What we know:
By secondary structure, the protein is of the alpha/beta class. The chain has helices at residues 2-5, 7-11, 22-39, 53-61, 71-79, 96-105, 115-127, 163-168, 170-174, 197-214, 243-253, 267-270, 304-308; strands at residues 17-20, 42-46, 65-68, 87-89, 109-112, 132-139, 161-162, 179-185, 221-223, 261-265, 274-285, 291-295, 314-316, 324-330, 339-347, 354-357, 378-381.
Amino acid sequence: MLSRKVADRLAGMQTPFYLYDMDLLRLTLESAVSMAARYGYQLHYAIKANYDPRLLEMIRQYGLGIDCASGNEVRCAIEAGFDPAKIVYAGVGKKDDELRYAIDQGLFAINCESLEELDVLSALAVEAGKKVTVALRVNPDIDPKTNHCIDTGQADSKFGISYEEILEHSGHIRQLPGICVRGMHLHIGSQIRELHVFEYLCEKVNVIVENLEKAGFQLEFVDVGGGLGINYDMPENEPVPNFASVFAIINSHLRVGDRPVHFEFGRAIVGECGELITRVLYNKTTATGRKLLIVDSSMTELIRPALYGAYHNIENITSKEEKREKYTIVGTACESTDKFDENVSLPVSKRGDLLTLKSAGAYGQSMASRYNLHDLPRSVYSDEL
Ligand code: LLP
């Protein structure tokens, strides 16, 4: 873990901040890209996981495309130098302005998530004198066995179009003048650690692709989304996610002929390279005897614990104390749910000590807010220390 190695250098810095290990990001990208190359898979980075410009620059150098969820994400990707022909754009609620902008950029595909969106997109494309490539985002009704807050592919989810609905309306979809359906897309959820879930995904995709073809669609590519999880419990044991296994599973179970297969990983690319570095402000014991460590960051820097009950491994990187204590670690925001974790065993920690919240590279800085008018967290990079 980087922060422990460079703790001396971090000690004098103003906190809180995100610390990015650029060597680990490089290793992760090398692994993802070389494993994907074995099977000819196309990789897109889900930019929502982290928009940091230096991270984006390195991701671009490794040749990944981008997966976006808003017009501004598309704009950010293009401004960061990504080729629009490698950008996919999904999202349940694309606004007209966002669609108009996306139509003009000539993206690889717009992934549509409702019948009504297909109608609107077609009309806007006709208005612009264009025909846009569309992938249908299908809701496959799969339980990804992850935190329920971040699953996206079960029947009742707001994401994707039900497969039955697509088949029922296939004639209508195929004759829409402004669009051409060339792909199918799905994304079943995030932080998937039970990799056999990807086997079910393949089985569903095989059936869906076969039946969409029977219904008259000519599918030229398949996008199986992202979702590969990381090891939040013990990040040191698995700093680079298991791309080899997920690709091997997809390769042995997916039957889509020679159609290119696309992936959209966010967390697996950037999750482990980022840590949130924060400083202990105060010790305090509640009337019930609970020992609190109040630190100088909060849910405004890292909302995952407060929003999903997500776990981040926390360490004190500067304490030299032998004795340990159990702490509830809380932040500065005026919210009772602003708590990073409880019952955390740490060396006795005092004002001024630095803590790290590990595995915070994905959905950390990108979900930061200015609640309580907190400043947005800044980035510190390992190669600039
Ligand atoms: N593709 C689509 C269409 C998505 O909606 C997402 C994530 C991804 C790809 C990338 O998924 P990943 O590879 O990162 O699992 N804020 C939550 C996660 C929300 C994920 C949203 N969609 C968290 O902090 O856990």
